Queue: 2 jobs
Job 1
Amino acid sequence: PMSRLLLLALLPFISGESENEIGEVVLTPQGMGKDFTERVVLPVSNGRLPALPCVLLNAGAHEHGQTFTKGNFHYMCNNGTAEVVACIAEDSSVIQLGRTFVRNGIRHKCNVNGDSVTYEQESMCFENGIHYNVGDSFRNGSFKLTCGKDGVAIEGCYLQNEATGILAPGESRIVGKYRHECEKVAEGKVRYTVKVVGCVKDDRVFNVGQVFTDKHIRYQCQLDGTLNVMGCVDEGGMFIELGRDVLVNGMVHRCYKIDRTTFFHKFACDSDRLDVCIANSIVPRFRRSVS
């Protein structure tokens, strides 16, 4: 469990009945009668009692001045009263009264509240050398993080050069000429990117929807910032769609893609049949791709 609370009143764990006629005192755990099997019998001499031991249920008897541990508490027996002197964590770490102890992402508290002692343990998050409580939010680079019960969770992305602007995972926002994206790439993983609105090629910026030609290849800028290859353009301005072959005045114009590269190829052909020209092409037809 994330947190644990144990409460123990600092009250005597004894009950005794004087048997004057036989000169003895019977001590039993608190709430138990004198016939309880784990009782302790003390003799009375000249009407004076010795220092009383502490008798605890399921913890046995402990002499006056003796220390012992039960559950998450360390006790000292003080004349019949078991007094808490420290708290004990599950890994046997000792936490002094009123102190807080942090180890392996767990905070341990040993609080004194009046006549009672409270032991608490609570998970924490450890990030960049700092411990955070569950529910705390903090910044790490471009990301807003929150300490949760199951660890650190990404709550969003901080806008670049802004102190308070935050994007939720999966959200994007255009600020000026830039698109800020807080992209959710996988469960528990977020990527923050800043892109110019439009498309960039060879350090030139093109608007969304803009069509332009570069080195015989005609492109159109897409909304997501990518360039869509529309086709090829020869020296005279004739357009050939991507994946098409055109025979004009004895010249074959070819626009094709191999893997992710688009090629424009032109060659002379004596035949007036395009299929014959293609069959004799130095670029085999089966290698053309428009994907």
Note: The mean pLDDT is 79.
Job 2
Amino acid sequence: AGDGSGPVGSAAEDGGPPVPERVLFPPTFSVSEIKNKQRRHFMFLRWKQQQRKEKLAAKKKRRKEREALGDKAPPKAIPKTIENQRVYDETTVDPNDEEVAFDEATDEFAPYFNRQTVPKILITTSDRPRGRTVRFCEQLSTVIPNSHVYYRRGLALKRIIPQCIARDFTDLIVINEDRKIPNGLVLSHLPDGPTAHFRMSSVRLRKEIKRKGKEPTEHVPEVILNNFTTRLGHSIGRMFASLFPHDPQFIGRQVATFHNQRDYIFFRFHRYIFKSEKKVGIQELGPRFTLKLRSLQKGTFDSKFGEYEWIHKRREMDTSRRKFHL
């Protein structure tokens, strides 16, 4: 193929007859054997194009066969993914489990779900935050109703927490940064905990999101929690739910989504509009970010003497790609 005698040839480049649409590569053909870099790249693109055409043709053929068979058509094959090949976790929550129902009725978040308390959130930062972290905190406060942004000014978290409890705050959110980029989030439920520490990545502010909607309104958003299936995931989901007032205002058409996939928690904030009875259009409002749980601690923040319920240990826990904890 390198000397011009391959399946495509060089006739089209020399002004000869046009290259046929279907490119027939020999069975033992390997693009990597072509020495010329430009020629190798060109042949690779043609090969990829042929692969796509063959895949599309096979898909059309299967669809026609299914239409011809009608009700007798075999069920569609389910592709294998890491998600559906997940290793079974014995802590997966059963909705009808009496023990789980009892724990939910007596845990730290029960007053919120019983509507005895109204969320009041304090959002703060690490010492001397830079502009990007400050803007992220301000935008996060427009997503979470009844949240207030204050800056650390050198105070230790152990001194901030008693002040928050005295002022009736129900949760404390701390945004940490590294090299001017937000890279961590600490969520502490007050007054008795628990405290979760997350690694934060892929932060996008509103101005960095394409085709974003207008600024969010002050309506209380709806909250969607996806795939928090284990006991640990259930606890984390209840922590996120307790940040938002229990009664959403549907007239605002705003939705805050925490989607767990392979133990990465993706946050998105959207506005929706009904185009018809079956179609719904959505606009992302921002900000967006991704969280990865690092630890869950009993009680409020205490890095030295705190009792940890769960700590992510990479060498021990990440031995299988099909094992998830949330």
Note: Residues 31-67 form one domain.
